[in-house]
Amino acid sequence: MDNEMSYLFGLFQTDGHLSEDTRNRGKFSLEIDIKDEDIIKKLNKIITVNSSISYRKRITNFGPSSSVKISVYDYRFREQLKSWGFPVGKKSGIIRPPSTEYSEIDYIRGLIDGDGSIGITSSGFPIFGFVTTSEEMKNYIINFIYKVTGKNKQINRNQRDNCFNICLYKEDVIKLVSILYYDGCLSIKRKFDSAQKVKKWNRPTNMIKVNQQKWNKSQDDFILNNSINESILSLNRTEKSVKMRLWKLKNKASE
């Protein structure tokens, strides 16, 4: 996959649907809110096979809603998606990264444009969120966050809808969007504009920076078997944090 197709595959996995019928008939479709119509028009130019765009209005529990949809019936296009690992039918709980070479940055930006959120909270600091029901996708995004920020997130399914809600705040969001939303990248304009606002954020002088990174068993084992300096460098922790954790572990063991 090139950069554009890597992005599209991520977006397709979150908002797209692939269906099949007898005699090789089927359809790929992607429907999004009318406010993001710009990306549908871009897709219509990028997809080289015949595609069609349609609109619909409906009344939901939240009021009137308008959406735009792109549909592709081409057999070869659908088979290509399947060869890269795109499932037919319901897919939210089983999506995974493509089974071919791809651009990770562009692919993840597609995922976030579909099922992610980027912005500034009412309290005035950056926030990032990504929701998925796929265990494999949760692990994949958490691993990427660790590579970018050094934060080892520990996420469990929530009880309300059995989803994983992955969140980042403040400087960590800036690090993430600075890599994903580069100048000239293919993306939903609304998400790109939000990313640019986040990049301009500066921590107020009266806002104390607190390391809220949780400890896990592998990190506990590491600091118990390595020096404090090695722990600081390897785990991206402060000396105070490592010493405090060691004190808690040793006092717990002596109880």
Top keywords for this entry?
three-stranded antiparallel β-sheet; alpha+beta; 44% helix; 7 strands; 255 residues; four-stranded antiparallel β-sheet; elongated; 10 helices; 20% strand
Task: Characterise the protein shown here.
- There is one protein chain.
- The protein is an alpha+beta fold and 255 residues long.
- The chain has a domain at 217-254.
- It contains 10 helices and 7 strands.
- The strands form 2 sheets. Strands 1-2-4-3 form a 4-stranded antiparallel β-sheet. The protein has a 3-stranded antiparallel β-sheet with strand order 5-6-7.
- Helix 6 packs across helix 7 (189-199).
- The relative contact order is 0.12.
- The model has no long low-confidence stretch (mean pLDDT 89).
Question: Secondary-structure map with pairings?
Answer:
Elements lengths: L2 H13 E5 L5 E8 L3 H10 L5 E9 L2 E10 L2 H9 L20 H12 E5 L5 E7 L2 H15 L14 E6 L1 H10 L8 H11 L17 H9 L2 H8 L3 H16 L1
In short:
The chain has 255 residues and is α+β, with helices and mostly antiparallel strands. Helices cover 44% and strands 20% of the residues. The strands form 2 sheets. A 4-stranded antiparallel sheet has the order 1-2-4-3.
Percentage of β-strand residues: 15-25%
> What is the H-and-E element order?
HEEHEEHHEEHEHHHHH
Discrete helix count: 10
Strand runs, count: 7
What class, by secondary structure content? alpha+beta
Query: Which residue ranges are poorly predicted, with pLDDT under 50 across at least 5 consecutive positions?
Result: none
Please state the overall shape, judged from the principal axes of the Cα atoms: elongated
Helix content: 40-55%
Distance between the termini: 56 Å
Mean pLDDT: 89
The main pleated sheet reads as:
4 strands, antiparallel
